[in-house]
Amino acid sequence: MYLEEIKGQDLPIFNKKFILSLFTVITFLLPCKDHSLFGQPLKTALVLSGGGARGLGHIGVLKVLEENNYQPDLIVGTSMGAIIGGLYACGVPVDQIEKKVREIDFNTLLSDHNYKGIELASQKLVDFPALMRMDIDKNLNLNFPKYLFTTQTIQDELMPFTIAGQYYSNGNFDSLAIPLRIVATDIRSGQSVVFQKGNIARLMAASSAMPFLFSPVELDSMNLVDGGLTNNVPCDIAQEMGADFIITSDLTSRKADIHNDPTPSRYFEQTINTLAYLSDTRNLHLSDIYIRPQVDNISSTDFEKLDTLIKASYETAKKYNNQIGAILGSSPDRRQKWFYQSHKSLDSARIDKIRFIKSDKVRSYIIKRENLLKKGQPWNLDKAQRSVGNLYSTKLFKSVSLTLDRSRDTTELVYDLSLRPKSRISFGAFYDSEIDAKAFLSVEYRNLLESSINYQLYLIASDRYKKLAWDINVPRIFTTHFTNYISAYLMQERIPFYDYSATGEYWKRGLDLNFGLNIKRGALTSIGLKFENVHIENNDRLDFINDKQYNAVRLTGQLFVDNRNFRDMPTEGKLTRMIYEHSISNNLAPLESFAKLYFETTDYQPVGNGFVLSTNFNGGFMNRAMSHFEQFRLGGVNSFPGLHKDALWGKAFIVTGLGLRYLIMDGLYVRGKILGGNIWKSSDLIDWDNLTAGGRLGLLIPTPLGPLTLDWSKATSRAPLIYFSFGHRF
Known about the structure:
Elements: E1 2-4, H1 13-29, E2 36-37, E3 40-41, E4 44-48, H2 58-67, E5 74-78, H3 80-89, H4 94-103, H5 106-109, E6 132-136, E7 142-143, E8 147-149, H6 152-169, E9 180-186, E10 191-195, H7 200-207, E11 212-214, E12 217-219, E13 222-226, H8 235-240, E14 245-249, H9 264-275, H10 277-281, E15 289-291, H11 306-318, H12 321-328, H13 334-347, E16 353-357, H14 364-370, H15 381-393, E17 397-406, E18 411-419, E19 423-432, E20 436-448, E21 453-462, E22 465-474, E23 482-497, E24 502-519, E25 523-537, E26 548-562, E27 573-585, E28 594-606, E29 611-622, E30 632-634, E31 648-650, E32 652-665, E33 668-680, E34 692-701, E35 708-715, E36 721-727
Parallel strand pairs: 4-5, 4-14, 5-9, 8-11, 14-15, 16-18
Antiparallel strand pairs: 1-10, 2-3, 6-7, 6-19, 9-10, 9-13, 12-13, 17-18, 19-20, 19-36, 20-21, 21-22, 22-23, 23-24, 24-25, 25-26, 26-27, 27-28, 28-29, 29-32, 30-31, 32-33, 33-34, 34-35, 35-36
């Protein structure tokens, strides 16, 4: 690698065009073979610019070059150009690149919740969706967040397509199917950095890591971000690598006159384009064929315009068919053979060594238990992906990169681990028209004694609900699948009784001790012992609530399954919870006790294009209740739409329902849900002829701050209700 400084323009554009025209005439008079001039090989380069979503148009340019049987001697890419060019340099067929791009949900890249599906169930028992996190250093200084999302997801998406090329070339970009250079920016020094070797997927992610949006990629002493900051159209790199002929695909945004009052997003985009103008244009005079599709009406975030981008780039590139054919002729396609050989070599690879970099602050057994690839075993892509996911989902690491290196006699599997700071403060908030605003503040200390023991002190506060708790959690005890969880808490809740225009209030102080067993990664069984002191206040003198205070000892058993792929808007997976609770209170005769069983299950599955179907079944039974507040509750946008939250109370209930969500346009969903069931004062009073129904229909807009929802709802014999919410629920 070397540092690239900004260079001046060497050659006026009109002279360049004159030479190009003369060169074209010569090639007609003196036939060239294998794009040579006077018998001398002509080294050609393909330069692919950045441009965010616009950069996906490079696929259309590659299609035209393939139709001309032209293959460059070098590819130089920045940002999205580094991703498309890097995949192509690894021999990936252009149709597979297009297929992969179409399969990616780019909204999932703008999320830090993509690993929920593989986290241990024991990690999800108390898990808050933070709007902001601040790390605490050793000197107790708060470090404000420098980015919104991690580049881990980008690396994980690219790794399966680059690992064969990575292994076969041993990380040397000159040994790929087409030699490659990746341009990134070291934000520490502010200089451009050009890479000719390394972890391909990791460097692709670095080259496209827009500051403030994505986390920098830490490499050696550098913090790498988007290469477009310093060299968005890196023709000069191609020239320095000895290229005699440069084809440039430029899909960068351009500054343009703004008429009337600009929107905030348009104003921001114009600011970025103005700042990037020099980086975008200073090397254009070095191009021999300059391809710039007319897609100025498409922004760098319009990923849904893929078809338009590819078509526009394809049509623009076709205009240069004569120049490409006349000057460059055809070249042998080395990529297909190289692609086959690289995958054949990878398929026969057997792991001889395993090495973990920067892992000294974590006990070795924690890392080894999450790695599914063992010494002496053959390479397995599925296990490799799961191992990276397992390690990242421990929440001990900011990033996990996997490399497969080979020497003459050995194959080494290398994990590069970047540790998270041990301490952090998290904040989150949520608004619901039924409960108003709700917020949390959490202070965490992770990895105590380098043994994955986690402490958490948190406060949840709203007008109706408050909870202060201190938790100790060990997701996995040593190398076993056992887990333990301890929580000491103080809780207060004020609940409106709509039929009486009154409120009830109670306080709880408790200690909860749990010991469990993780079943695979998405399920947990546990037993627990809970000690509680409960104080009830009947300020509005309701007949069915008594002022009292009592102590309770509860023995609990729980089955918990959560393998949903996303927290807020899952497209597949299941959430199941079954809790049995046996309680004894000190204000009753010793032999009198209380038994309570609660269960819920919701299953999500995609059905058809853009549809997600959900089915749910909830229920609960208890023989007695120590107080009114121990009973089950029913009502709310998810519990039973058409009713106010916690509108109905009882000792037995059953609800079943069906939901459907559909993507009607990018960034906008319509959703509906119908439920049937009821709640009864006791299990003896269950009447199957006395069931009620409810439903809702509304819109959902996903945002980085959480979903924004608006629902109209109606229940049997009830007036319609409107629900509104914004944020991540917790």
